[in-house]
Amino acid sequence: MSTFSGVIVPMVTPFRRDEGQTINYEAGEQLVERIIAGGASGIFTFGSNGEFHVCTPDEKIEFSKFVIEKVAGRVPVYVGTGSCSTREAVEMSKRAEDAGASAVSVINPYFMKVSDAEIEGYYEAVAESVKIPVLMYNIPKSTGTNLSPEVVARVAEIDNVKGVKDSSGNMENLAAYVEAARGKDVDVLVGSDGKISAAHALGASGAIAGTANLITNVVVSLWRALEEGDSEAAASYQADVEPIRDVLHMGSTPQTLKRALELAGVPVGPARRPVAETTPEVDEKVRAMLDHYGIAHE
């Protein structure tokens, strides 16, 4: 039985346009309801789209706790707790577990170069500190390090390490993770929305898809078609993820995704500074993308 499966939405963190760009809890509740109504299998707070890197530990725990309360057991809620520091990753993982998280997603240390043995030690320390499942998170373009399949295979031996999310976009890497996880109770998830079908074919058990903040039903329908073996429908849905991806590439993550949600009536506000507001030119393209999906907008 998979611990992590289906379409998991790495929800954006809503901010107000006040001086401190404080978290907007009301908008958070609205987004939670929208995601669940779209048929998602899980919600993930404070991933890359959740801007974990510009939020304080207290903000992360308090907002995650709020999301967990609002979800009220309808789907699992996973919380991003990784850090450059093992001490902080351990502390955050314990706090997320206390807040009621179903699992923690743990990015490997970033900014500095650490050895494979050091990465393994980091994951061991985090996994030993909690009883809930741990998901490794590989996003080399942001961390500077690709978790090697060998590291994944060794970390996967730890009892409560139950999955790895691969956002490398490299299908050979994902295939090697599937191989590393074989025979272990460990799921492989894809984090590249343009490669969901390819990942499913290789044995991925689910997708953590940022685009599903906005087009939940499209991504959920894609996964359903893949699971049912309807390759024609799957190809059509996979192609239908491209218009939003084209727009997302026009700004820093998650600038344009948040603007799209905002124009669609979910007041998630801007990305936190230093990421700026979108330009009128980008807004025009965002509106055209919303028209493509038949999403009403301002």
TrEMBL record:
Domain of life (superkingdom): Bacteria
Record: active site: 137, 165
One GO term (biological process): small molecule metabolic process
UniProt-annotated binding residues for pyruvate: 208
Pfam families, per the entry: DHDPS
Keyword terms: Lyase, Schiff base
GO MF annotations, alphabetized: 4-hydroxy-tetrahydrodipicolinate synthase activity
Family as reported in the entry's similarity comment: Belongs to the DapA family.
Protein name: Dihydrodipicolinate synthase family protein
Natural source organism: Tractidigestivibacter scatoligenes
Classification lineage: Bacteria, Bacillati, Actinomycetota, Coriobacteriia, Coriobacteriales
